[in-house]
Amino acid sequence: MSDIILETEGLTREFGGFVAVDDVSLRVRRGTIHALIGPNGAGKTTCFNLLTSFLPPSSGKIRFNDRDITGMKPALVARLGLVRSFQISAVFPHLTALENVRLALQRARGPSFDFWRSEKALGVYNDRARELLFDVGLTGLADTVVAELPYGQKRALEIATTLALDPEMMLLDEPTAGMGHDDVNRIVELVQRMRNGRTILMVEHNLSVVEGLCDTITVLTRGRVLTEGDYATVSKNPDVIAAYLGTPHV
């Protein structure tokens, strides 16, 4: 099996003449944590949308596990094992934490009429759902309605629902955005635990998170790859300092 799990070649997306992602060639090594960083408008989230087929590319190719997935429907991409989270928490606010995770677990049944089934019949998913809630630090909150959870716990719950899909590769879009220091630390610890047996590609603005977590960092600016390397290399690059950091990061 190839060491490269996800690869793009000349990936480009235009919107009415504006090039949001411009000739991006990306190679993500299997089993690593890889970050996409860059200033606002650099094309990071658009790149995520292209990788997971929420947007079709204007040109270029995307390969996952040596398979061309360019233009494939998002649901099919997810079934292949490439699953993403979003900047805005994508959970059901009026269901409990347990019910949210259980819905994700039901995916394994494929197309079905589970929404007609009784609560008791769906109980087969409860133990695994509780395990996932434990994994993300939400033990004891299984029966809490999601609307009552603070922001950091909602983000942790979204990661639990993503893990319920048992992905080979996870794309995390700003997992610590809007969080306080304690919540950031919990998410960092969670991502470190998740990496066992998985590959993670993440967009993240918090450079201390990137420094502590990521093996490889790709810097985007104006839709193009500016540079790539480990944190020590990237953080000292004068072009990165000018385009993204503003001043040398201490």
Q: Any descriptors?
A:
single chain, 250 residues, alpha/beta, Rossmann fold, 6-stranded mixed β-sheet, 5-stranded antiparallel β-sheet, 11 strands, 32% helix
Structural summary, described in words:
With 250 residues, this protein is α/β, with parallel strands linked by helices. It has 2 domains: 1-81 and 167-250, P-loop containing nucleotide triphosphate hydrolases (Rossmann fold); 94-166, no CATH class. The protein has helices spanning 44-51, 74-79, 97-105, 126-135, 151-164, 181-194, 207-213, 231-235, 238-245; strands at 4-15, 18-24, 27-29, 33-37, 59-64, 67-68, 82-84, 169-173, 199-203, 216-221, 224-229.
General form: globular
Widest beta sheet: strand line-up: 7-8-9-4-10-11
H/E element order: EEEEHEEHEHHHEHEHEEHH
Weakly predicted, low-confidence segments: none
The major pleated sheet works out as: 6 strands, mixed
Strand content: 15-25%
- Helix- and strand-based class? alpha/beta
Task: State the share of residues found in helices, binned by percent.
Answer: 25-40%
CATH hierarchy: architecture of the largest domain:
3-Layer(aba) Sandwich
The CATH homologous superfamily of the largest domain is termed P-loop containing nucleotide triphosphate hydrolases
**Kindly state the mean pLDDT as a whole number?**
87
CATH classification, class level of the largest domain: Alpha Beta
Query: How big is the Rg?
Result: 19 Å
Using the coordinates shown, work out and report the CATH topology of the largest domain.
Rossmann fold
